[in-house]
Amino acid sequence: MKTNNLGYPRISSNRELKKASELYWLGKITADELLATGKNIRKENWELQHNAGIDLIPSNDFSFYDQVLDLSLTLGVIPEQYKAFAKENSVLDLYFAMARGAQKEGQDVVAMEMTKWFDTNYHYIVPEFTKDQEFRLFSEKIIDEYKEAKTAGYETKPVIIGPVSYLLLGKEKQEGFHRIDLINKLLPVYFDILQKLQDEKATYIQFDEPFLALNLSDIERAALVYTYTKINEKFPNIKIILANYFDCFGENLATALSLPVHAFHLDLVRCPLQLGDILQSNLLVKNTILSLGVIDGRNIWKNDFKNSLTLIQQAVDAVGADRIWIAPSCSLIHSPCDLDLETNDATLTPEIKQWLAFAKQKVEEVVVLRNLASNEITEDDQAHYEENTLANTNRKKATIIHNDAVKNRVASIVEKHSKRNSPFPVRRQQQIAALQLPLFPTTTIGSFPQTPEVRSWRAKLKKGELSPTEYNALLQKETEETIRFQEESGIDVLVHGEFERNDMVEYFGEQLEGFAFTKNGWVQSYGSRCVKPPVIYGDVSRPNPMTVKWAQFAQSLTPKWVKGMLTGPVTILQWSFVRNDQPRSVTCTQIALAIRDEVVDLEKAGIKIIQIDEPAIREGLPLRKEEWAAYLDWAIKAFRISASGVSDDTQIHTHMCYSEFNDIIQNIADMDADVITIECSRSQMELLDAFADFKYPNEIGPGVYDIHSPRVPSSQEMVDLLEKAAAVIPIDQLWVNPDCGLKTRHWDETKKALVEMVKAAKQMRVAV
Ligand code: GLN
Ligand code: ZN
To answer: What is the per-residue pLDDT across 352-385, written as a single tens digit (0 to 9) for each?
Structure first.
């Protein structure tokens, strides 16, 4: 029974890769220094896995930015617009230019599009294909890293995204073809790679085909059969491991199992029942190996050895121990690096810590599980087993997890809790009377610039260099200036600016029961950007109001309406590590009740307009369409629970960015927010069509300018966009606002842009 790992975090335990990349981009270290950092990280990762006892250690799982972009470069998929840049620059700089754009000495290229990797918070660079797309072996990274590992003394298993998934991850840049049609032109380059790896004596190669977890067309399934049949014909001696993760094979099961490969990797965390289906089917070819992904690569909980051993035993009984490997469910790049670095009891208590495992610990779990499942159990393994059982029992019984009041409250939810008192048309009349807003009311999405200064105050507070009183005074001053600016520029609905918030989820998590935080639990989000999701370990409740003080303070400064700002339950859930001992829907409902209490308290404090941000609703959609309805049902209901505790004349806003709405517009309407603001400007209002076609009944604020860029738009550009919007949405339903919060912008451009925005709204009013 071998141990198998699919990928290891490349950011390194202290985010060394982030630091080195950012220094390189600033010109503060040389390319050689950056390359040396990469080499060092790879070596450390191989060494760690080797010492832990992993048999199949991945190589080519390292990346300076993104593994999909690596593959595009490997296959020579370089869009036309970078060709001139490529001539004058190193491959490394070309790579970074494709990832993040480049502006230097007359060269000006934009970044390629980025999107989420399946249902994770990892973002990849989307490959672009043309009709006559050519492929060639442009970079030998995968071969070089295999050789590098060998030189360092490690036999590795190169990892590559399979040809079918690679094509499906991309996008056609021209009409008149489907990217899957390119498979015949693409395969020869994969053959080149396999030939070179074979020449270097590589034995195992892992092909990731995560699209096997999605709904595929017959053509796509046929492409898979064609691809792996051809590979097997040409390279019968290479042992191909076909890796699927994040969900079951579903209706692709028969196709998948028919592929002539050496091993199948299964995600038994997301899809434990599949093991039984596979073992009972007659589809598994004799001798094929099953890599059992029993350890959760997507979450931070310690494995439950007892459960895993039951699954493993089931497989061993059916096919024999020599056809079973033990593995994490997916690549460990979705886990933080090392729990041993969490030494701060204030952020993570020892009680909670004993329930957790990060990447390094998961690798150890893989090996112990293998030992336990085989007949060579050492004393050490036995001790591990007992420790694991104890930790899991402790967790089940822990008093800090369970809160009966919360459980009872969830159990007693009835329909009226997720329903406003009156339907929207009735509420609307009351809100019009109460709020007295002009046509095309202007507002912002919440945050104002989080300057280095503002962030330094928070850092000083943490270090004790500022007292809470001093810190508050500084924030109050910043808030007051922001209110004054909004008044002067003529914005109708003001915000306080969110200066007190580090992050829109962490800020709430820190004030809720049931949440814990890590000091160093970073996970790569994109490129050098990492996130540190909170850990939801127990029943969630809100001991005290969380935002009322700041909203009230801001409202006291002005006769205009100040909008209260909250993060919604689905987004808090989606951007955290969520407990795995109850359904996500239950945890989400608990959070919804906590937010509901906050909404009610804001209303009591005199706040008449309250925004509940839900940018993550769309990304929470399951991978398979047949599971969408169930998710949307509880997710939308959670939002409604959070929003429905207030009277009719209190106006509830929600905000969503990076979303497409076409296929979920009915659900968006079911949220029944009085006003929804959406990111829209980069699509030139195209995203609004879904709302127009649906005849979306409530009010809507399509973003009129892109906040991701420092560029200041003119009022005319925004008028043009608003006219587009007004052509499809009745004007008395329209609001005027930016695409998203302004926290990443500088004050100078923020002020100019908002002044232009107000000008645009006024021009629209005059035109009526
Ligand atoms: N209110 C938040 C802000 O303005 C919303 C952020 C988001 O949608 N991602 O920053
Ligand atoms: Zn947003």
So the answer is: 999 999 999 999 999 999 999 998 899 999 999 9
What is the pTM assigned to this prediction? 0.95
Closest atom of ligand 1 to CA, residue 567: 1
Specify the DSSP class assigned to residue 340: G
Amino acid at 474: L
Q: Give helix then strand counts, H and E, for the chain.
A: 28, 25
Residue 130 CB coordination number (10 Å): 15
* 178 in catalytic set: no
H or E element in which residue 601 lies: helix 584-604
Residue with tokens 């850092």: 459
Distance 574 CA to ligand 1 centre (A): 15
Cα 494 from Cα 276, distance rounded (Å): 57
The angle formed by the CA atoms of residues 762, 764 and 767, to the nearest 5 degrees, is 110
- Do residues 417 and 589 touch, judged by C-beta distance below 8 A? no
- The reported pLDDT for the residue numbered 708 is 82
Closest alpha carbon to 21 in 76, 83, 66, 78:
66
- Closest residue CA from atom 10 of ligand 1: 741
- Candidates 85, 76, 90; CA nearest to 129 is 76
Residue 65's SS3 state is coil
Residue 542 pLDDT: 98
Nearest CA to ligand 1 atom 6: 741
Per the CB < 8 A criterion, the answer to whether 57 and 327 are in contact is no
Residue 712: CB partners within 8 Å, gap ≥ 6?
749, 752, 753, 756
What protein residues have CB closer than 5 angstroms to ion ligand 2? 615, 657, 740
CA distance 95 to 475: 41
Distance 447 CA to ligand 2 centre (A): 10
> Do residues 212 and 249 lie in contact, with contact meaning Cβ atoms separated by under 8 Å?
yes
Q: What is the dihedral sign for C-alpha 172, 176, 179, 184?
A: negative
**CB contact burial 413-449 (16+ within 10 A = b; e otherwise):** eeeebbebeeebeebbebbeebbebeebbbbbbbbbb
Is the per-residue pLDDT at 682 higher than 80? no
pLDDT in tens, 6-36: 999 999 999 999 999 999 999 999 999 999 9
Q: Are 37 and 20 in contact (CB under 8 A)?
A: yes
Separation of 446 CA from ligand 1 center, angstroms? 6
Backbone phi and psi for residue 566, each to the nearest 5 degrees, phi listed first? -135, 155
Structure tokens at 653: 């806003």
User: Would you put residue 242 in left (φ > 0), alpha (ψ -120 to 50) or beta?
Assistant: beta
pLDDT of residue 237 exceeding 80, the answer is: yes
Strands 523-526 and 529-531: antiparallel
Helix (H) or strand (E) holding 676: strand 675-678
**Which of 168, 173, 737 has its CA nearest to residue 486?**
737
Cα–Cα distance, 636 to 419 (Å, whole number) = 11
**Of 142-156, 446-460, 707-721, the least confident:** 707-721
Q: Is the dihedral of CA 317, 322, 323, 327 positive or negative?
A: positive
pLDDT in tens, 531-566: 999 999 999 999 999 999 999 999 999 999 999 999
Sign of the torsion formed by the C-alpha atoms of 97, 100, 104 and 107: positive
The answer on whether 603 is annotated among ligand-binding residues is: no
Q: Which residues line ligand 1 (CB under 6 A)?
A: 445-447, 498, 504, 565, 613, 615, 655, 657, 740-741, 743
- Does pLDDT of 108 surpass 90? no
756 Cβ contact list (under 8 Å, min separation 6): 712, 713, 714, 715, 718
* Cα gap 277→273, rounded to integer Å: 7
Is 15 annotated to bind a ligand? Reply is: yes
* Alpha carbon distances (Å) from 211 to 163, 169, 242, 250: 11, 9, 12, 11
